[in-house]
Protein backbone atom coordinates (compact mmCIF):
# COMPACT_ATOMS: atom_id res chain seq x y z
CA UNK A 1 0.00 0.00 0.00
CA UNK A 2 2.81 2.39 0.85
CA UNK A 3 4.47 1.69 -2.49
CA UNK A 4 1.25 2.44 -4.38
CA UNK A 5 0.83 5.75 -2.49
CA UNK A 6 4.36 6.76 -3.45
CA UNK A 7 3.73 5.83 -7.06
CA UNK A 8 0.58 7.91 -7.09
CA UNK A 9 2.56 10.86 -5.61
CA UNK A 10 5.30 10.48 -8.20
CA UNK A 11 2.76 10.35 -11.01
CA UNK A 12 1.03 13.46 -9.66
CA UNK A 13 4.34 15.30 -9.43
CA UNK A 14 5.24 14.25 -12.95
CA UNK A 15 1.85 15.42 -14.21
CA UNK A 16 2.27 18.76 -12.41
CA UNK A 17 5.73 19.18 -13.95
CA UNK A 18 4.46 18.43 -17.45
CA UNK A 19 1.55 20.82 -16.98
CA UNK A 20 3.91 23.55 -15.75
CA UNK A 21 6.19 23.07 -18.75
CA UNK A 22 3.25 23.25 -21.15
CA UNK A 23 1.91 26.35 -19.45
CA UNK A 24 5.35 27.98 -19.71
CA UNK A 25 5.57 27.06 -23.40
CA UNK A 26 2.09 28.39 -24.09
CA UNK A 27 2.82 31.61 -22.19
CA UNK A 28 6.05 32.04 -24.14
CA UNK A 29 4.18 31.70 -27.43
CA UNK A 30 1.45 34.05 -26.24
CA UNK A 31 4.03 36.62 -25.13
CA UNK A 32 5.86 36.30 -28.44
CA UNK A 33 2.68 36.63 -30.48
CA UNK A 34 1.02 39.44 -28.58
CA UNK A 35 3.42 41.19 -26.19
CA UNK A 36 7.19 40.99 -26.75
CA UNK A 37 9.24 39.56 -29.59
CA UNK A 38 12.96 39.40 -30.27
CA UNK A 39 14.36 40.83 -33.52
CA UNK A 40 17.82 40.72 -35.07
CA UNK A 41 19.28 43.98 -36.36
CA UNK A 42 19.81 43.17 -40.08
CA UNK A 43 21.94 46.14 -41.21
CA UNK A 44 24.01 49.04 -39.93
CA UNK A 45 21.42 51.74 -40.69
CA UNK A 46 21.16 52.61 -36.97
CA UNK A 47 24.90 52.33 -36.25
CA UNK A 48 26.73 52.89 -34.06
CA UNK A 49 23.85 52.79 -31.57
CA UNK A 50 22.41 49.54 -32.98
CA UNK A 51 24.52 47.33 -35.18
CA UNK A 52 24.08 44.69 -37.84
CA UNK A 53 26.82 42.13 -38.42
CA UNK A 54 30.12 43.91 -37.92
CA UNK A 55 33.71 43.79 -36.84
CA UNK A 56 34.82 45.27 -33.54
CA UNK A 57 38.15 46.96 -34.25
CA UNK A 58 40.80 48.49 -32.01
CA UNK A 59 42.73 51.39 -33.46
CA UNK A 60 46.43 50.47 -33.17
CA UNK A 61 47.32 54.16 -32.68
CA UNK A 62 44.87 55.65 -30.16
CA UNK A 63 43.33 52.39 -28.87
CA UNK A 64 39.77 53.54 -29.61
CA UNK A 65 37.40 50.59 -30.00
CA UNK A 66 34.76 50.98 -32.69
CA UNK A 67 32.40 48.85 -34.81
CA UNK A 68 32.88 48.51 -38.55
CA UNK A 69 30.06 47.11 -40.67
CA UNK A 70 30.43 44.18 -43.04
CA UNK A 71 28.29 42.25 -45.47
CA UNK A 72 29.19 38.71 -46.39
CA UNK A 73 30.16 38.04 -50.01
CA UNK A 74 32.89 36.20 -51.87
CA UNK A 75 35.59 38.16 -50.03
CA UNK A 76 34.27 37.25 -46.60
CA UNK A 77 34.33 33.94 -44.81
CA UNK A 78 33.35 33.21 -41.24
CA UNK A 79 36.84 34.06 -40.01
CA UNK A 80 38.57 36.19 -42.63
CA UNK A 81 37.60 39.50 -44.20
CA UNK A 82 39.26 41.40 -47.02
CA UNK A 83 37.96 44.65 -48.38
CA UNK A 84 38.07 48.43 -47.92
CA UNK A 85 40.06 49.85 -45.05
CA UNK A 86 38.35 51.08 -41.93
CA UNK A 87 39.06 54.53 -40.52
CA UNK A 88 39.28 55.27 -36.80
CA UNK A 89 36.58 57.80 -35.80
CA UNK A 90 38.90 59.37 -33.23
CA UNK A 91 42.30 59.85 -34.88
CA UNK A 92 41.57 58.99 -38.51
CA UNK A 93 44.07 56.13 -38.70
CA UNK A 94 43.45 53.77 -41.62
CA UNK A 95 43.18 50.18 -40.41
CA UNK A 96 43.95 47.39 -42.86
CA UNK A 97 42.79 44.35 -40.98
CA UNK A 98 44.07 40.92 -42.05
CA UNK A 99 42.27 38.62 -39.68
CA UNK A 100 39.10 39.78 -37.98
CA UNK A 101 36.29 37.83 -36.38
CA UNK A 102 32.81 38.88 -37.58
CA UNK A 103 30.18 39.52 -34.96
CA UNK A 104 26.46 39.12 -35.43
CA UNK A 105 24.01 41.98 -35.18
CA UNK A 106 22.45 43.18 -31.96
CA UNK A 107 19.22 41.50 -30.90
CA UNK A 108 16.47 43.66 -29.44
CA UNK A 109 13.23 43.09 -27.58
CA UNK A 110 10.29 44.82 -29.22
CA UNK A 111 6.96 45.64 -27.56
CA UNK A 112 4.43 44.49 -30.12
CA UNK A 113 1.06 46.14 -30.70
CA UNK A 114 1.98 49.00 -28.37
CA UNK A 115 0.83 51.42 -31.05
CA UNK A 116 -2.65 49.92 -31.03
CA UNK A 117 -3.16 51.56 -27.65
CA UNK A 118 -0.53 54.29 -27.52
CA UNK A 119 0.32 56.89 -30.15
CA UNK A 120 3.84 56.58 -31.61
CA UNK A 121 6.16 59.32 -30.41
CA UNK A 122 8.73 61.16 -32.46
CA UNK A 123 12.25 59.70 -31.98
CA UNK A 124 10.93 56.27 -30.95
CA UNK A 125 13.07 53.45 -32.37
CA UNK A 126 10.50 51.44 -34.31
CA UNK A 127 10.36 48.03 -35.99
CA UNK A 128 8.14 47.95 -39.09
CA UNK A 129 7.62 46.06 -42.32
CA UNK A 130 9.60 47.51 -45.21
CA UNK A 131 6.90 49.03 -47.44
CA UNK A 132 9.02 48.32 -50.52
CA UNK A 133 8.62 44.58 -50.08
CA UNK A 134 6.22 44.24 -47.14
CA UNK A 135 8.20 41.25 -45.86
CA UNK A 136 11.49 42.29 -44.28
CA UNK A 137 11.56 43.88 -40.82
CA UNK A 138 13.30 47.25 -40.67
CA UNK A 139 14.34 49.20 -37.59
CA UNK A 140 14.63 53.00 -37.78
CA UNK A 141 13.95 56.13 -35.79
CA UNK A 142 10.51 57.71 -36.15
CA UNK A 143 11.08 61.29 -37.32
CA UNK A 144 7.73 62.38 -38.78
CA UNK A 145 4.13 62.00 -37.57
CA UNK A 146 0.79 62.00 -39.41
CA UNK A 147 -0.47 65.48 -40.28
CA UNK A 148 3.02 67.00 -40.50
CA UNK A 149 5.12 68.26 -43.37
CA UNK A 150 8.73 67.05 -42.97
CA UNK A 151 11.86 68.74 -44.29
CA UNK A 152 15.51 67.95 -43.50
CA UNK A 153 17.63 71.10 -43.46
CA UNK A 154 21.33 71.14 -42.51
CA UNK A 155 21.09 67.82 -40.70
CA UNK A 156 18.05 68.69 -38.57
CA UNK A 157 14.42 67.64 -38.94
CA UNK A 158 11.99 70.53 -39.44
CA UNK A 159 8.21 70.08 -39.17
CA UNK A 160 5.08 72.03 -40.03
CA UNK A 161 1.76 70.99 -38.46
CA UNK A 162 -1.12 70.96 -40.94
CA UNK A 163 -4.74 71.83 -40.19
CA UNK A 164 -7.72 70.47 -42.16
CA UNK A 165 -8.40 73.68 -44.06
CA UNK A 166 -10.57 72.06 -46.74
CA UNK A 167 -12.62 70.03 -44.24
CA UNK A 168 -12.31 66.66 -46.01
CA UNK A 169 -11.15 64.76 -42.92
CA UNK A 170 -7.64 64.24 -44.30
CA UNK A 171 -4.57 66.24 -43.32
CA UNK A 172 -2.45 66.35 -46.45
CA UNK A 173 -0.40 68.58 -48.74
CA UNK A 174 -3.54 70.41 -49.91
CA UNK A 175 -3.99 71.86 -46.41
CA UNK A 176 -0.64 73.68 -46.48
CA UNK A 177 -1.07 77.43 -47.01
CA UNK A 178 1.41 77.75 -49.89
CA UNK A 179 1.45 78.53 -53.58
CA UNK A 180 1.03 76.08 -56.48
CA UNK A 181 3.43 75.05 -59.24
CA UNK A 182 2.62 74.91 -62.97
CA UNK A 183 0.84 71.56 -62.43
CA UNK A 184 -1.26 72.93 -59.58
CA UNK A 185 0.66 71.00 -56.92
CA UNK A 186 1.35 72.64 -53.52
CA UNK A 187 4.83 74.15 -53.21
CA UNK A 188 5.70 72.76 -49.78
CA UNK A 189 9.16 74.34 -49.76
CA UNK A 190 7.42 77.73 -49.55
CA UNK A 191 6.13 77.00 -46.05
CA UNK A 192 7.33 79.65 -43.59
CA UNK A 193 6.29 78.39 -40.15
CA UNK A 194 8.79 75.57 -39.76
CA UNK A 195 9.93 74.48 -36.31
CA UNK A 196 12.84 72.28 -35.32
CA UNK A 197 11.91 68.82 -34.07
CA UNK A 198 14.07 68.67 -30.94
CA UNK A 199 15.11 65.46 -29.30
CA UNK A 200 14.47 64.69 -25.60
CA UNK A 201 17.56 64.39 -23.41
CA UNK A 202 17.65 60.56 -23.24
CA UNK A 203 17.41 60.34 -27.04
CA UNK A 204 20.01 63.04 -27.62
CA UNK A 205 22.40 61.33 -25.21
CA UNK A 206 22.13 58.11 -27.22
CA UNK A 207 22.73 59.88 -30.53
CA UNK A 208 26.04 61.65 -29.78
CA UNK A 209 28.87 60.44 -32.01
CA UNK A 210 32.60 60.79 -31.46
CA UNK A 211 34.63 63.61 -33.01
CA UNK A 212 37.69 63.46 -30.72
CA UNK A 213 38.36 62.19 -27.22
CA UNK A 214 41.58 63.60 -25.75
CA UNK A 215 41.95 60.55 -23.48
CA UNK A 216 42.64 58.45 -26.60
CA UNK A 217 45.57 60.15 -28.24
CA UNK A 218 47.47 58.40 -31.05
CA UNK A 219 51.01 57.24 -30.43
CA UNK A 220 52.11 58.80 -33.75
CA UNK A 221 54.69 56.07 -34.30
CA UNK A 222 54.48 54.17 -37.54
CA UNK A 223 51.27 55.88 -38.61
CA UNK A 224 50.01 55.30 -42.12
CA UNK A 225 47.71 58.32 -41.93
CA UNK A 226 48.89 61.84 -41.20
CA UNK A 227 47.50 63.23 -37.95
CA UNK A 228 47.62 66.79 -36.67
CA UNK A 229 47.15 67.80 -33.04
CA UNK A 230 43.56 69.16 -32.97
CA UNK A 231 43.99 71.35 -29.86
CA UNK A 232 46.19 74.38 -30.34
CA UNK A 233 47.02 77.16 -27.85
CA UNK A 234 46.79 80.61 -29.41
CA UNK A 235 49.29 82.04 -26.91
CA UNK A 236 51.36 81.18 -23.85
CA UNK A 237 49.51 80.29 -20.70
CA UNK A 238 48.47 76.72 -21.55
CA UNK A 239 50.58 73.62 -20.98
CA UNK A 240 49.19 70.79 -23.13
CA UNK A 241 51.79 68.17 -22.23
CA UNK A 242 50.35 66.82 -18.95
CA UNK A 243 49.87 63.04 -18.80
CA UNK A 244 51.20 62.67 -22.36
CA UNK A 245 48.88 65.36 -23.69
CA UNK A 246 45.72 64.12 -21.96
CA UNK A 247 45.65 66.90 -19.34
CA UNK A 248 45.53 70.62 -20.16
CA UNK A 249 46.97 72.98 -17.54
CA UNK A 250 45.99 76.64 -17.53
CA UNK A 251 48.70 78.75 -15.91
CA UNK A 252 47.68 82.30 -16.87
CA UNK A 253 47.96 85.19 -16.57
CA UNK A 254 45.15 86.93 -18.47
CA UNK A 255 42.71 85.32 -20.91
CA UNK A 256 44.31 82.54 -22.95
CA UNK A 257 42.59 80.55 -25.68
CA UNK A 258 42.62 76.97 -26.94
CA UNK A 259 41.13 76.24 -30.37
CA UNK A 260 39.97 72.85 -31.68
CA UNK A 261 40.48 71.75 -35.31
CA UNK A 262 40.56 75.32 -36.54
CA UNK A 263 39.24 75.52 -40.13
CA UNK A 264 39.28 71.74 -40.68
CA UNK A 265 35.89 70.93 -42.25
CA UNK A 266 36.56 67.17 -42.53
CA UNK A 267 36.55 66.80 -38.76
CA UNK A 268 32.91 67.91 -38.59
CA UNK A 269 31.53 66.08 -41.64
CA UNK A 270 28.64 63.66 -41.28
CA UNK A 271 30.70 60.52 -41.98
CA UNK A 272 30.33 57.40 -39.85
CA UNK A 273 33.24 55.10 -39.00
CA UNK A 274 30.86 52.12 -39.20
CA UNK A 275 30.92 52.53 -42.99
CA UNK A 276 33.89 52.05 -45.24
CA UNK A 277 35.49 55.24 -46.54
CA UNK A 278 33.62 54.73 -49.82
CA UNK A 279 30.38 54.05 -47.99
CA UNK A 280 29.86 57.69 -47.00
CA UNK A 281 28.89 58.69 -50.53
CA UNK A 282 25.75 60.64 -49.59
CA UNK A 283 27.71 63.45 -47.91
CA UNK A 284 27.96 66.80 -49.68
CA UNK A 285 30.44 69.62 -49.16
CA UNK A 286 27.88 71.53 -47.07
CA UNK A 287 27.17 68.63 -44.68
CA UNK A 288 29.28 70.22 -41.94
CA UNK A 289 27.75 69.44 -38.56
CA UNK A 290 27.57 72.29 -36.05
CA UNK A 291 25.40 70.41 -33.55
CA UNK A 292 28.24 69.72 -31.13
CA UNK A 293 28.98 68.91 -27.50
CA UNK A 294 32.19 70.17 -25.86
CA UNK A 295 32.77 68.61 -22.45
CA UNK A 296 35.59 68.51 -19.94
CA UNK A 297 36.32 68.09 -16.24
CA UNK A 298 37.84 71.10 -14.49
CA UNK A 299 40.08 70.66 -11.44
CA UNK A 300 40.64 74.06 -9.76
CA UNK A 301 43.98 74.77 -8.08
CA UNK A 302 42.51 77.74 -6.18
CA UNK A 303 39.24 79.48 -5.36
CA UNK A 304 39.67 82.07 -8.11
CA UNK A 305 39.49 81.40 -11.82
CA UNK A 306 37.23 81.33 -14.82
CA UNK A 307 36.62 78.96 -17.70
CA UNK A 308 34.77 79.60 -20.98
CA UNK A 309 33.60 76.83 -23.32
CA UNK A 310 32.78 78.16 -26.80
CA UNK A 311 30.90 76.82 -29.84
CA UNK A 312 29.57 78.42 -33.01
CA UNK A 313 26.89 77.92 -35.64
CA UNK A 314 27.01 80.03 -38.82
CA UNK A 315 27.61 83.62 -37.64
CA UNK A 316 26.49 82.88 -34.07
CA UNK A 317 29.00 82.14 -31.32
CA UNK A 318 28.13 80.92 -27.84
CA UNK A 319 30.00 80.66 -24.56
CA UNK A 320 29.34 78.92 -21.30
CA UNK A 321 31.19 81.00 -18.69
CA UNK A 322 31.99 79.15 -15.47
CA UNK A 323 33.40 81.23 -12.61
CA UNK A 324 34.91 79.31 -9.70
CA UNK A 325 32.89 81.53 -7.32
CA UNK A 326 29.85 79.50 -8.42
CA UNK A 327 28.35 81.92 -10.95
CA UNK A 328 27.73 80.67 -14.50
CA UNK A 329 26.52 82.57 -17.55
CA UNK A 330 25.35 81.73 -21.06
CA UNK A 331 26.66 84.27 -23.60
CA UNK A 332 26.04 85.01 -27.28
CA UNK A 333 27.76 87.19 -29.85
CA UNK A 334 27.83 87.62 -33.63
CA UNK A 335 31.19 87.91 -35.32
CA UNK A 336 29.52 89.49 -38.37
CA UNK A 337 28.53 92.43 -36.18
CA UNK A 338 32.11 92.99 -35.10
CA UNK A 339 31.66 91.46 -31.66
CA UNK A 340 35.07 89.94 -30.99
CA UNK A 341 35.24 90.38 -27.22
CA UNK A 342 33.10 88.36 -24.81
CA UNK A 343 32.78 91.50 -22.69
CA UNK A 344 30.57 92.82 -25.54
CA UNK A 345 28.46 89.65 -25.70
CA UNK A 346 24.77 89.40 -24.95
CA UNK A 347 23.93 87.56 -21.71
CA UNK A 348 21.29 84.88 -22.31
CA UNK A 349 21.16 83.64 -18.74
CA UNK A 350 22.83 83.58 -15.34
CA UNK A 351 22.70 81.06 -12.49
CA UNK A 352 24.45 80.05 -9.27
CA UNK A 353 25.79 76.50 -8.92
CA UNK A 354 27.84 76.82 -5.72
CA UNK A 355 31.47 77.80 -5.30
CA UNK A 356 34.06 75.37 -6.65
CA UNK A 357 36.29 73.71 -4.05
CA UNK A 358 40.04 73.36 -4.54
CA UNK A 359 40.87 69.91 -5.89
CA UNK A 360 37.21 68.94 -6.47
CA UNK A 361 36.55 67.88 -10.06
CA UNK A 362 33.52 69.42 -11.76
CA UNK A 363 32.13 68.10 -15.05
CA UNK A 364 31.06 70.89 -17.43
CA UNK A 365 29.73 70.85 -20.99
CA UNK A 366 28.41 73.26 -23.61
CA UNK A 367 25.93 71.80 -26.09
CA UNK A 368 24.53 73.13 -29.35
CA UNK A 369 21.86 70.79 -30.75
CA UNK A 370 18.65 71.34 -32.73
CA UNK A 371 19.04 75.14 -32.57
CA UNK A 372 19.27 75.21 -28.79
CA UNK A 373 22.31 75.99 -26.62
CA UNK A 374 22.63 74.45 -23.15
CA UNK A 375 25.26 74.75 -20.42
CA UNK A 376 25.65 71.66 -18.22
CA UNK A 377 27.35 71.47 -14.81
CA UNK A 378 27.84 68.10 -13.11
CA UNK A 379 25.54 66.44 -15.67
CA UNK A 380 22.66 68.83 -15.01
CA UNK A 381 21.33 71.41 -17.50
CA UNK A 382 21.79 74.81 -15.86
CA UNK A 383 21.10 77.36 -18.60
CA UNK A 384 19.47 77.10 -22.05
CA UNK A 385 18.60 79.43 -24.89
CA UNK A 386 14.98 80.02 -25.91
CA UNK A 387 13.31 80.24 -29.31
CA UNK A 388 12.80 83.94 -28.72
CA UNK A 389 16.55 84.42 -28.32
CA UNK A 390 17.75 82.00 -30.99
CA UNK A 391 15.87 80.30 -33.84
CA UNK A 392 16.58 79.61 -37.52
CA UNK A 393 15.68 81.83 -40.44
CA UNK A 394 14.74 78.92 -42.70
CA UNK A 395 14.71 80.71 -46.11
CA UNK A 396 18.09 82.30 -45.35
CA UNK A 397 19.49 78.96 -44.15
CA UNK A 398 18.33 77.17 -47.30
CA UNK A 399 19.85 79.91 -49.48
CA UNK A 400 23.18 79.59 -47.67
CA UNK A 401 23.25 75.83 -48.15
CA UNK A 402 22.46 76.12 -51.86
CA UNK A 403 25.24 78.70 -52.19
CA UNK A 404 27.67 76.45 -50.31
CA UNK A 405 28.19 79.07 -47.60
CA UNK A 406 28.38 76.89 -44.49
CA UNK A 407 31.36 77.85 -42.32
CA UNK A 408 33.35 75.41 -40.24
CA UNK A 409 32.26 75.49 -36.56
CA UNK A 410 34.54 77.15 -34.05
CA UNK A 411 35.20 75.14 -30.90
CA UNK A 412 37.36 76.55 -28.11
CA UNK A 413 38.26 76.87 -24.46
CA UNK A 414 39.36 80.06 -22.70
CA UNK A 415 41.03 80.24 -19.31
CA UNK A 416 41.27 83.33 -17.09
CA UNK A 417 42.27 84.11 -13.50
CA UNK A 418 43.57 81.30 -11.28
CA UNK A 419 45.23 78.07 -12.29
CA UNK A 420 43.34 74.86 -13.08
CA UNK A 421 43.56 71.59 -15.00
CA UNK A 422 41.23 70.08 -17.59
CA UNK A 423 40.76 66.31 -17.73
CA UNK A 424 38.72 64.03 -20.03
CA UNK A 425 38.14 66.67 -22.70
CA UNK A 426 36.12 65.53 -25.72
CA UNK A 427 34.09 66.82 -28.65
CA UNK A 428 30.98 64.97 -29.86
CA UNK A 429 28.57 65.62 -32.72
CA UNK A 430 24.89 64.96 -33.21
CA UNK A 431 23.43 62.64 -35.85
CA UNK A 432 23.35 64.63 -39.08
CA UNK A 433 20.63 63.65 -41.57
CA UNK A 434 21.83 63.99 -45.16
CA UNK A 435 19.78 64.89 -48.26
CA UNK A 436 20.57 62.31 -50.98
CA UNK A 437 18.99 62.02 -54.42
CA UNK A 438 17.01 58.98 -55.50
CA UNK A 439 19.43 58.05 -58.29
CA UNK A 440 22.19 57.93 -55.66
CA UNK A 441 20.97 55.27 -53.19
CA UNK A 442 22.84 54.63 -49.93
CA UNK A 443 25.77 52.26 -50.18
CA UNK A 444 26.22 49.10 -48.20
CA UNK A 445 28.92 48.81 -45.56
CA UNK A 446 31.56 47.63 -48.07
CA UNK A 447 31.15 50.71 -50.23
CA UNK A 448 29.11 49.24 -53.08
CA UNK A 449 25.81 50.77 -54.14
CA UNK A 450 22.86 48.80 -52.87
CA UNK A 451 21.03 46.98 -55.64
CA UNK A 452 18.00 49.13 -56.19
CA UNK A 453 16.00 49.73 -59.35
CA UNK A 454 15.00 53.36 -59.61
CA UNK A 455 12.07 54.14 -61.94
CA UNK A 456 13.04 56.57 -64.71
CA UNK A 457 10.51 59.14 -63.49
CA UNK A 458 12.35 59.34 -60.15
CA UNK A 459 15.93 59.53 -61.38
CA UNK A 460 17.61 62.69 -60.14
CA UNK A 461 14.75 63.62 -57.84
CA UNK A 462 15.72 64.72 -54.31
CA UNK A 463 14.97 62.13 -51.64
CA UNK A 464 11.62 62.33 -49.89
CA UNK A 465 11.51 64.79 -47.00
CA UNK A 466 14.85 66.36 -47.93
CA UNK A 467 15.54 70.08 -48.21
CA UNK A 468 14.42 70.36 -51.84
CA UNK A 469 11.56 67.87 -51.55
CA UNK A 470 9.47 68.26 -48.37
CA UNK A 471 6.83 65.59 -47.82
CA UNK A 472 3.37 65.91 -46.26
CA UNK A 473 2.44 62.94 -44.09
CA UNK A 474 -1.27 62.27 -44.32
CA UNK A 475 -3.57 61.73 -41.34
CA UNK A 476 -7.03 60.20 -41.88
CA UNK A 477 -9.90 60.92 -39.49
CA UNK A 478 -11.97 57.95 -40.72
CA UNK A 479 -9.15 55.53 -41.54
CA UNK A 480 -6.27 55.99 -39.07
CA UNK A 481 -4.80 52.65 -40.14
CA UNK A 482 -3.56 54.52 -43.23
CA UNK A 483 -1.85 57.33 -41.29
CA UNK A 484 1.66 57.99 -42.60
CA UNK A 485 4.97 58.09 -40.72
CA UNK A 486 8.51 59.08 -41.74
CA UNK A 487 11.50 56.93 -40.70
CA UNK A 488 15.21 57.78 -40.61
CA UNK A 489 18.32 55.76 -39.75
CA UNK A 490 20.95 57.20 -37.40
CA UNK A 491 23.67 56.11 -39.84
CA UNK A 492 22.27 58.60 -42.31
CA UNK A 493 24.88 58.36 -45.13
CA UNK A 494 24.24 54.61 -45.48
CA UNK A 495 20.62 54.19 -44.40
CA UNK A 496 17.90 52.97 -46.75
CA UNK A 497 15.00 54.79 -45.08
CA UNK A 498 11.99 56.98 -45.93
CA UNK A 499 14.18 59.36 -47.93
CA UNK A 500 14.99 56.59 -50.39
CA UNK A 501 11.84 54.49 -51.00
CA UNK A 502 11.61 53.93 -54.77
CA UNK A 503 8.91 51.28 -55.06
CA UNK A 504 5.92 49.87 -53.22
CA UNK A 505 5.17 46.24 -52.46
CA UNK A 506 2.30 44.88 -54.59
CA UNK A 507 0.68 43.54 -51.42
CA UNK A 508 0.22 47.04 -49.97
CA UNK A 509 -3.16 48.72 -50.20
CA UNK A 510 -2.33 51.39 -52.76
CA UNK A 511 -5.79 52.80 -53.58
CA UNK A 512 -9.08 53.29 -51.78
CA UNK A 513 -12.60 52.60 -53.06
CA UNK A 514 -12.56 55.89 -55.00
CA UNK A 515 -9.22 55.08 -56.63
CA UNK A 516 -7.35 57.64 -54.54
CA UNK A 517 -3.73 56.76 -53.65
CA UNK A 518 -3.26 55.48 -50.11
CA UNK A 519 0.32 54.30 -49.67
CA UNK A 520 2.87 56.79 -50.98
CA UNK A 521 6.62 56.54 -51.43
CA UNK A 522 8.59 58.00 -48.54
CA UNK A 523 6.02 56.96 -45.96
CA UNK A 524 5.33 54.02 -43.67
CA UNK A 525 1.60 53.36 -43.11
CA UNK A 526 0.42 52.74 -39.58
CA UNK A 527 -0.61 49.17 -40.37
CA UNK A 528 3.03 48.35 -41.17
CA UNK A 529 4.23 49.29 -37.66
CA UNK A 530 5.23 46.24 -35.60
CA UNK A 531 6.29 47.80 -32.31
CA UNK A 532 8.75 49.84 -30.31
CA UNK A 533 12.30 48.63 -29.67
CA UNK A 534 12.83 48.41 -25.94
CA UNK A 535 16.10 46.70 -24.97
CA UNK A 536 19.24 45.19 -26.49
CA UNK A 537 19.10 41.87 -24.68
CA UNK A 538 21.80 40.11 -26.73
CA UNK A 539 24.58 42.38 -27.99
CA UNK A 540 27.17 40.92 -30.32
CA UNK A 541 28.31 37.87 -28.35
CA UNK A 542 31.73 36.63 -27.32
CA UNK A 543 32.95 33.53 -29.15
CA UNK A 544 34.11 30.39 -27.44
CA UNK A 545 37.29 28.85 -28.87
CA UNK A 546 35.61 25.46 -28.64
CA UNK A 547 33.42 23.89 -29.89
CA UNK A 548 32.93 25.38 -33.33
CA UNK A 549 33.88 28.96 -32.42
CA UNK A 550 30.25 29.68 -31.45
CA UNK A 551 28.92 33.10 -30.43
CA UNK A 552 27.08 31.92 -27.35
CA UNK A 553 28.31 34.18 -24.54
CA UNK A 554 26.36 37.47 -24.48
CA UNK A 555 28.32 40.66 -23.88
CA UNK A 556 26.41 41.64 -20.74
CA UNK A 557 28.29 44.93 -20.41
CA UNK A 558 26.66 46.19 -23.61
CA UNK A 559 23.10 45.22 -22.77
CA UNK A 560 21.18 48.49 -22.79
CA UNK A 561 17.87 50.24 -23.16
CA UNK A 562 17.07 51.58 -26.62
CA UNK A 563 16.60 55.36 -26.84
The whole-angstrom Rg is: 27 Å
Under CATH, the homologous superfamily of the largest domain reads: Exo-inulinase, domain 1
SS-derived structural category:
mainly beta
How many discrete domains? 3
How many strand segments?
A: 35
CATH architecture of the largest domain: Sandwich
Distance between the termini: 64 Å
Poorly predicted sequence stretches spanning 5 or more consecutive residues: 22-30, 72-82, 445-449
Number of helices: 4
Q: Find the CATH topology of the largest domain.
A: Jelly Rolls
Mean pLDDT: 85
Quaternary class:
single chain
Q: Based on Cα principal axes, name the global outline.
A: globular
Percent helix among the residues?
under 10%
| CATH class category label of the largest domain | Mainly Beta
The largest sheet, given as strand count, sense and whether it forms a barrel, is:
8 strands, antiparallel
Beta-strand content estimate? 25-35%
